[in-house]
Amino acid sequence: MINSLKTIAVFGSNFTGIYRYPLTKAFDKAAGEIGMNLVYINYIGRVGTSYVQYGEYEFDLLKNIEVDQFDGIIYDGEGYNDKRLAVAAIEKLRGVKCPVISISSYVEGFHNVRFDDLYGFRLLVEHFLDHHHFTRIGFMSGYLTHPDARGRLNEFRAIMREHGLPEDGAGMFEGDFWFNKGEQAADYFLSLPERPEAIVCANDYMALSLITAFKKRGISIPEDIAISGFDGTADGQETMLPHLTTATREQYALAKSVLTAMEKLIEGDESASDICVRSSPIYSHSCGCLKLDYRKESEKIDDMYHLIRGINYHVLDAEAAVIRLDQADSLEKMQTIFNELAVNFGSFRSFFLMLYADDEGRLSCNSDFTSSSGRLKPVMWLDHDNEYIRPEGLLEKGYLIPQSSSERSHSYLLTSIHTSEHCFGFATIEMDNDGRSREFYVMWLVLLGMTLETLYKNDRISKLIDSLESKSFRDDLTGLYNRRGFYKMSQDELNAAENVIVCTFIIDMDGLKRINDGYGHYEGDNAIKALARMISLCCENGEIAGRTGGDEFSVFAVDYPEEKAQQFIRRLQSMAQSYNETSTKPYQLSVSCGYSTAPSDNAEIDELLKISDSRMYKEKSRKKNSRK
Questions:
Q1: Per the domain annotation, does 558 fall within a domain?
Q2: What one-character DSSP code corresponds to residue 239?
Q3: Greatest Cα pair distance in the chain
Q4: Highest mean pLDDT range out of 189-198, 300-309, 419-428, 440-449?
Q5: Interval 199-258: pLDDT, tens
């Protein structure tokens, strides 16, 4: 729970993009007025025009979200460029306890918004007929296999018939709902026996492409031909000249209607599920209702210039971010860099990066990570207003947004952090302005994912190096240091020792050849491993032990006077005796030991080992003589 306000999740895709972002701002405004929190569960899907693999790991985010923590859910299916994500999201939301409203497409089992788009479309066509008194009106349809294209064409034909005109008006051209057919459409309409006075297009993109094609052919809009679109895109209203006459679903009205209905549905009022939104016309320059205000357009051009110049600076910021993040060798440094350089998408109130953990509590950037347990850990925590309570340790599955001390309406954008190889977790951000350069935020998410991938691979390389180094210092049979490892570690300890007694031991197994000859080398290896375990158990005060020969072991110890050395040997002999008393082996395990001590200031390991070895052989000879 964020605070005491109702929290609504909005599932959708590309909320940072130019086409869906205005919808989020409309919902933010309406939620602030009503008093609700919004959590946008944002998917990216395809990156660019062709990189479809980016969306593969976004399914992990969907899998790890506990949907029943929300008071209500809004599903926006229009922005998905990976339809598999849309299908998966719908299946995730089926059967949830809270109300679910679909705002852009009909979904069986959800509460659905009904869009009366034909109302606004009809007003556009009738505007040309009744206000401008045009009788030669052409129609540019979308591809006719699309239900919206068929619906708008049928409505156009009905209006034409109602006014006693041919049902296809001055001519009908099948377009593609995109920019690709403008040239062909222009040639078609200009080839007609009578040039159309106006052309109604089934959406803005086709209208813009048609205007561009007419301009190339010397046709003035609207003086020669008036044109309208449909959808109310920012391109048509702000960028293209003349600005486009169109019709649109007013997004704030949609947001207010949906959230008001959601509030009633949460309270149990099922009658609120009948939500209908009408499109409304925008009469502008391309039909001749408005004249271009060149002073105003000049100011817009100035604003555009400043925007483009700002974007150029943002690109430089992005380049700096790439260079700096390449130097990040820890999660802490990654946060520092983000906090310093993340300025090119607008300022933010808070930013949280949550990483998945496995069943062992290892984070997803750890190369030993297995698979997500659903548990999380916040590894980046930027709370500029000090509104949130930072939890300690690992968080349980389903945690999304930290608890806030503020009772204001909050709006968060939650997006997966991943690469094409790993899914690391998700980022949650709360902006405090309109985020005009919001596309750069997605770039930051990609960069953070790549940095985590680098940390993951660096950790793997480091562990591999440690493993190889360990193997180069370790004896494969016993796990003790080999000769090389023993000498290195012992010399390091001796170099660090000051004013203490150091000691070396040489330990040799008696009769290994007899065991090998009588019972095989497998049993000989077992005997060596048994002795190695005993030596390891005796090394409980920081002693360094190694297998330095076939059946020969060496031990180096710091701060080891004579009494301590003798205790070590007595304990080892006692262990050997206990082993023989309890073992079912057909042989007895016996060891011979020699040791030597010296002050650390003038000790040499080779000299100490030489003395220890000599004493060990004296011990071995004494045993042989005693058996004669």
A1: yes
A2: I
A3: 132
A4: 189-198
A5: 999 999 999 999 999 999 999 999 999 999 998 887 888 778 899 999 988 889 899 999
3-state helix, strand and coil shares in percent for the chain, rounded to the nearest 5: 45, 20, 35
Domain range for residue 210?
Answer: 116-251+280-292
Nearest partner of 57 among 348, 371, 342, 341, judged by Cα: 371
Q: Number of folded domains in the chain? A: 3
By CB neighbour count within 10 A (0-12 exposed, 13-18 middle, 19+ buried), where does 24 fall? buried
3-state secondary structure 559-602: CCCHHHHHHHHHHHHHHHHHHHHHCCCCCCCEEEEEEEEEEHHH
Question: Does the CA dihedral 186-190-196-198 come out positive or negative?
Answer: positive
Residue 310 lies in a domain: no
586: left (phi over 0), alpha (psi -120 to 50) or beta: alpha
Which residue's structure tokens are 């569960």?
Answer: 41
CB-based contacts of 482, cutoff 8 Å, min separation 6? 473, 474, 475, 546, 547, 548
Look up the pTM and report it: 0.73
Euclidean distance between CA atoms 528 and 166, whole angstroms: 102
Please report, for the chain, how many H helices and E strands are present, in that order: 17, 19
The closest alpha carbon to 414, from 9, 112, 96, belongs to 9
Q: Are 241 and 286 in contact (CB under 8 A)?
A: no
